[in-house]
C-alpha cells in the first residue's frame, strides 16, 4: 500500500516508522507539515496514497485532508487521553505504565476513533530518552496493527464514546508546574522535574541573573552547598546545590529574549561562560577517573568498567552530539581502556543515542564556525582512527540507540557492530550539505560494497537495524527492550570472550590491517576526505553553513527532510 507520512519533523519516531513500514512492503513517502497545508496537499496530489499516518504533528491536519483521506494520528498517551502534553503528564505522575494510541483524525483534537493501542513501561529516565525508546517501540507496534487492520478492511475502529474508554483531557504542561524551588525541593524532586523536560522544553530558571532553560538532571552524592548555589563543573556540566544534596545539569539554553546570540542548547559551562565573560567566576573542576566505582551516585558522560577479560567503555552525550572536547575526552578514555588487560572491548552499550557525530550547536555558537567545524571533525577522526588501529583485542560497538553521520561511522570502525533491533542508522552526511569523513570511504565500502555505499550516501535515507544487518552494516541484532540492552550486551560479551577461536581472530586482525594498508592506507582515506570537508567548512557560501544554522536555530523554512524520493534530495 502507498502510505504518506506527514510530520512536523523527521524525528526518531518518524524515521523509525518510515523504515518499519517500508520493511513491511509498503511504499512510504514523507512530507513535512512545517510550511502549512500546501506541501501536504501537493504530496497527496502526486502520490495519491491509500493511507496517511501522522507520527508527530505540532499543528492539525487541514480539514479537507482528513475528510477526504483516512488519517491515522499517533498519540503518545493511552486510549482516552487527550491534550498536547501526554508524555509530560505521564512522566510527572511517575506512572509505571503508559500507552500509545493510534487515532483517526477528526474535528476535535485526539477525539477520533481508536485503531490500535499499545502499553509501555515507564522507567526512570528522561522524557526524550523515553520517547526515543519505549514510546517509539510501542508506537511502531500500534501503527503496524492499525495499518494491518486498515488494509484488511473489516475492522471497525472503537469510538471514544464507548463505555470502555476513559476520556481525560489534560492541558499543556506549563513552566509553572516545572519550576524548581531550590530551597525547598529535595534532590529527587529536582531530578524528576529536570528529567521530565530534559530535551524540550527544559525547565525555566535563573542563573547569575539571566533566564535560562535547564536541560537534563543527575543526582550527586558528595558535593553540598547553599541551596541553588553553583558548586562545580565537570565535562561541560554544572553542579547545583539542592536542599539535601546536589544535581548535575549538562546543558543550558538561554531564553530567546535574554540577548544571547546563541539561544539554543549547548554545554552548560559554555552558556555560563557567555553570561560571565570578563568576570572571575570559574567553577572548580570536580574531576572523576574514567573507572569511577559503580557505587558512586554522580554524573559522568564517559565511564569504564571491566568484567574479567571484557572492558566496557560507555558514553552518553546529550542528543548524541560530540563536540571537540567530548571527542578528545572519549579518545583519552579509549586509550585508557586499551591500557587495561582485556581481550574484548565494548564501545557504547547504553540506551538512547549512540552518537550523531560532530556537535552542530557548539559549532554554531563558536566565534568561527568553520574553524570549529574543522577542529571537531579532526577530533572525531582521531577517535575513529584509534578504533581502526586497535589490533590487540576485539572491539565491539554496542548500539543501543540511533546513530548518524560520523557517529554511525564510529560504530562501523569496530570489528563487530551489535544493534538493538529498535534503532535506526543514518550512515550518510548529505542532508547537512557535507561530503563526510570519519573514514567512511574506508569502512562503508568494506562492509557493504562500493555499490551499496554509494546508494546509502546518495539517497541519504534512514536504515532499520534489520536492513542494516542484511546489508552488512550490523553483525548482530539484539532483540531487547531499551532498559534491558546493557545487561544483554554484558552477557553476550562474556560469551564471546570465552570463545576458543577468539585469539585467532585477534591475530588475524593485524595481518588483515597490514594487507589493507598496502592497498590504500588509512591516512590516504583521511586526507582525501578532509580535503573535501575543508573546502566546505572554509567556504562561506557552502550550503552547509545555512543548513547547520537553520537546523540548530530551528528557523522557519528549514526542511532537511523533504519527500523521500532520491530525485527530490537536491
Rounded radius of gyration (Å) = 24 Å
The residue fraction in helices comes out at 25-40%
CATH topology of the largest domain: 2-enoyl-CoA Hydratase, Chain A, domain 1
Number of alpha- plus pi-helical segments: 19
Largest sheet: 6 strands, mixed
Structural class, judged by helices and strands?
alpha/beta
- The oligomerization state is single chain
Tally of structural domains: 3
| Second-tier CATH architecture of the largest domain | Alpha-Beta Complex
Distance between the termini: 26 Å
- What strand order characterises the main sheet? 2-1-3-4-6-7
Question: In the CATH hierarchy, what is the class of the largest domain?
Answer: Alpha Beta
How many β-strand runs?
27
Shape: globular
Instruction: Look at the structure and name the CATH superfamily of the largest domain.
Output: 2-enoyl-CoA Hydratase, Chain A, domain 1
β-strand amount: 15-25%
Instruction: Let me know the average pLDDT.
Output: 94
What low-confidence regions span 5 or more consecutive residues with pLDDT below 50? Answer: 557-563, 565-570
Amino acid at each position: 500500500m502507498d502510505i504518506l507520512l506527514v510530520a512536523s519533523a523527521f524525528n526518531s519516531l518518524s524515521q523509525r516508522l518510515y523504515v518499519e513500514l517500508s520493511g513491511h512492503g509498503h511504499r512510504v513517502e514523507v512530507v513535512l507539515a512545517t510550511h502549512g497545508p500546501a506541501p501536504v496537499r501537493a504530496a497527496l496530489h502526486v502520490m495519491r496514497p491509500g493511507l496517511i499516518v501522522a507520527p508527530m504533528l505540532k499543528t492539525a491536519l487541514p480539514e479537507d485532508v482528513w475528510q477526504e483521506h483516512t488519517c491515522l494520528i499517533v498519540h503518545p498517551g493511552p486510549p482516552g487521553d487527550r491534550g498536547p502534553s501526554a508524555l509530560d503528564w505521564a512522566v510527572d505522575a511517575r506512572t509505571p505504565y503508559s500507552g500509545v494510541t493510534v487515532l483517526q483524525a477528526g474535528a476535535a483534537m485526539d477525539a477520533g476513533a481508536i485503531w490500535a493501542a499499545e502499553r509501555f513501561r515507564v522507567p526512570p529516565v528522561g522524557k526524550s530518552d523515553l520517547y526515543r525508546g519505549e514510546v517509539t517501540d510501542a508506537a511502531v507496534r500500534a501503527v503496524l496493527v492499525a495499518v494491518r487492520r486498515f488494509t484488511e478492511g473489516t475492522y471497525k475502529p472503537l469510538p471514544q464514546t464507548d463505555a470502555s474508554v476513559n476520556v481525560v483531557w489534560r492541558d499543556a504542561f506549563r513552566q509553572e508546574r516545572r519550576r524548581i524551588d531550590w530551597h525547598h525541593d529535595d534532590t529527587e524532586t529536582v531530578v524528576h522535574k529536570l528529567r521530565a523536560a530534559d530535551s524540550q522544553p527544559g525547565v525555566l530558571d535563573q542563573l547569575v541573573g539571566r533566564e535560562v532553560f535547564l536541560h537534563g538532571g543527575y543526582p550527586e552524592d558528595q558535593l553540598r552547598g547553599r541551596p541553588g548555589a553553583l558548586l562545580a563543573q565537570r565535562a561541560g556540566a554544572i553542579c547545583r546545590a539542592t536542599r539535601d544534596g546536589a544535581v548535575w545539569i549538562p546543558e543550558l539554553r538561554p531564553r530567546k529574549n535574554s540577548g544571547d546570540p546563541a539561544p539554543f542548547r549547548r554545554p552548560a559551562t559554555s552558556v555560563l561562560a557567555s553570561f560571565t565573560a570578563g568576570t572571575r567566576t570559574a567553577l572548580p573542576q570536580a574531576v572523576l577517573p574514567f573507572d569511577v566505582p559503580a557505587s558512586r551516585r554522580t554524573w559522568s558522560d564517559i565511564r569504564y568498567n571491566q568484567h574479567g577479560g571484557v572492558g566496557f567503555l560507555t558514553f552518553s552525550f546529550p542528543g548524541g552530539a560530540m563536540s571537540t572536547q567530548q571527542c578528545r575526552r572519549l579518545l583519552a578514555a579509549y586509550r585508557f581502556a586499551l591500557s587495561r588487560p582485556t581481550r574484548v572491548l565494548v564501545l557504547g552499550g547504553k540506551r538512547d543515542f549512540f552518537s550523531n557525530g560532530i556537535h552542530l550547536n557548539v559549532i554554531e555558537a563558536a566565534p568561527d564556525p568553520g574553524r570549529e567545524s574543522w577542529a571537531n571533525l579532526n577530533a572525531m577522526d582521531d577517535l575513529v582512527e584509534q578504533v581502526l588501529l586497535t589490533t590487540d583485542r576485539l572491539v565491539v560497538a554496542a548500539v543501543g540507540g540511533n546513530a548518524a553521520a560520523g557517529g554511525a561511522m564510529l560504530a562501523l570502525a569496530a570489528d563487530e557492530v551489535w544493534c538493538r533491533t529498535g534503532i535506526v542508522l543514518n550512515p550518510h552526511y548529505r542532508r547537512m550539505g557535507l561530503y563526510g569523513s570519519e573514514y567512511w570511504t574506508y569502512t562503508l565500502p568494506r562492509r557493504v560494497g562500493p555499490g551499496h555505499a554509494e546508494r546509502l550516501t546518495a539517497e541519504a535515507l534512514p536504515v532499520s537495524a534489520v536492513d542494516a544487518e542484511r546489508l552488512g552494516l550490523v553483525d548482530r541484532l539484539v532483540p531487547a527492550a531499551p532498559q534491558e540492552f546493557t545487561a544483554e550486551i554484558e552477557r553476550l560479551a562474556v560469551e564471546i570472550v570465552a570463545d576458543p577461536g577468539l585469539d585467532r581472530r585477534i591475530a588475524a586482525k593485524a595481518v588483515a590491517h597490514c594487507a589493507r594498508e598496502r592497498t590504500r592506507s588509512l591516512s590516504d582515506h583521511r586526507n582525501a576526505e578532509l580535503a573535501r570537508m575543508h573546502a566546505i567548512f572554509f567556504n562561506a557560501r557552502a550550503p552547509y553553513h545555512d543548513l547547520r544554522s537553520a537546523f540548530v536555530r530551528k528557523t522557519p523554512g528549514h526542511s532537511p527532510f523533504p519527500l523521500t524520493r532520491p530525485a527530490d534530495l537536491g
